[in-house]
Amino acid sequence: MQDKITLLDNKRIILGVTGSIAAYKAVDLASKLTQAGALVDVMMTDAAQQFVTPLAFQSVTGRAVYTSMWQTDSSGGLPTHIAHIGLGEGADVLVIAPCTANTLAKIAHGLADDLLSVTALAARCPLVIAPAMDGGMYGSEVTEFNIRILKGRGVMVIEPDEGRFASGLVGKGRLPETPALIGHIRRMLGRDGALRGKNIVVTAGGTREAIDPVRYISNRSSGKQGYALAQAALDAGAKNVTLISAAQHLPAPVGATVVPVNSAAEMLYAVLEHTPNADALLMAAAVADFTPEHVATQKIKKKDDSSDAPTLALTRTPDILLVVKKRREDTGFPRVVVGFAAESEDLLHNARAKLERKGLDLLVANDITASDAGFEVDTNRVVILDTNGGQETLGLLSKAAVAEAIIGRVAEVLRR
Ligand code: CTP
After folding, report:
1. Does the active-site annotation cover 240?
2. Which of 263, 271, 249 is nearest to 292 (CA)?
3. Residues lining ligand 1, CB < 6 A?
């Protein structure tokens, strides 16, 4: 079971499904959207019903599935008995996935000869289209022309994946997987959020300091809180979200630009490069404080002598937040800076001192000795300190919920 997603919770989504073999993937999409809290009304074209049944969608959404223009709603729950008007009226977004070349062309030109195309024409909510078709059809001049028309009208057209088609051919035109589709839908639903138009930079993960070509020193940070912050900033409508990441194996949030880094020095360089016009910098990364003084160019070998072991001389890394503080005094950017403090003792006292020393607007402190908070786990327990002496204690929450609270506070500071 997937967790609820705040941005999707209680949102009315119309999911239009058209006649592509990828229609089976739309069942998973409908299921995951429902689990995230959305109310999903599925509309299927005749061709879609050749691939999957309405019952499949009804089973995962727990709601009626609409297949015909002439079908009236019997539940009485809609503002009108005419399905295409009633459904379209209250919807937050209309998603067509998969969308065939035929439906795409109809919608681009205002043709309205079945329930889905009539609804698309009548609806006033934003439209998200995920084309899925053979590479030849997707790459054809007329489809490209139709996509340009739709984009010009503000429709979000999700770029299909490349890969192998049911025909055996390889090319571009495959329906992206569910997490990618949901990422795009979130982008559309969040576009007028509290960070609309803003440039946000987030760092994540534990830096890796090389000892030799195969070994490094690192820490237990997974990067999950940083990735959740990037997603929350996207959900809040940020224009650009740059995720400077030392984390590995985490899926990039749709819409974020990921800048991979290894060491503290590389992270400093990336932060300076990406923050000259940033509205906010959130330093969620666990930056190494020490790095090997010399990096061996070849793998360090052991000798036959069993007592042999090298001594590692360490040196200090740059404090990124202190460098940023200095630059902000000169340029005014980033406009808002958020630091994080992982403490194992005297949490509030150490955190308050860090907020002041590093010139932060907000400091998010967590006690890493708690087993349900901090490193590696999916939950966190934090206190947010501000420059007015305020401290907000959040109870045990998912890292996504913690991220939303922090992003809410950032938006508030930016408004001032
Ligand atoms: N940080 C940084 N550059 C470093 C080390 C830390 O910018 N070289 C940032 C972290 O990303 C975090 C904040 O500073 O936002 C506090 O990190 P933390 O490790 O808690 O503090 P330190 O400054 O390392 O202090 P100490 O190790 O003494 O607790």
Report:
1. no
2. 263
3. 264, 283, 285, 287, 289, 317, 319-321, 339-342, 354
Q: Domain of 377?
A: 199-299+308-415
**pTM score, whole prediction:** 0.95
Instruction: For Cα atoms 33, 50, 126, give the angle at the middle one, nearest 5 degrees.
Output: 35
Say whether both 266 and 119 belong to one domain: no
Instruction: Give domain status of residue 194, yes or no.
Output: no
Q: Of 245, 287, 317, 323, which is best to mutate to test ligand 1, by the most ligand atoms within 8 angstroms of its C-beta?
A: 287
Q: Could you say which residues of the chain have pLDDT below 70?
A: 71-85
The kind and range of the H/E element at 98 are strand 93-99
Instruction: For residues 259 and 121, state if they share a domain.
Output: no
Do 116 and 249 fall into the same domain? no
Picking from 17, 26, 22, 15, the residue whose alpha carbon sits closest to that of residue 133 is: 22
pLDDT digits (tens, 9 = 90+) for 41-96: 999 999 999 999 999 999 999 999 999 887 665 554 444 556 656 778 889 999 99
Tell me if 33 sits within 8 A of 92, measured CB to CB: no
Does residue 208 sit in the same domain as residue 271? yes
Residues 185 and 248 grouped into a single domain = no
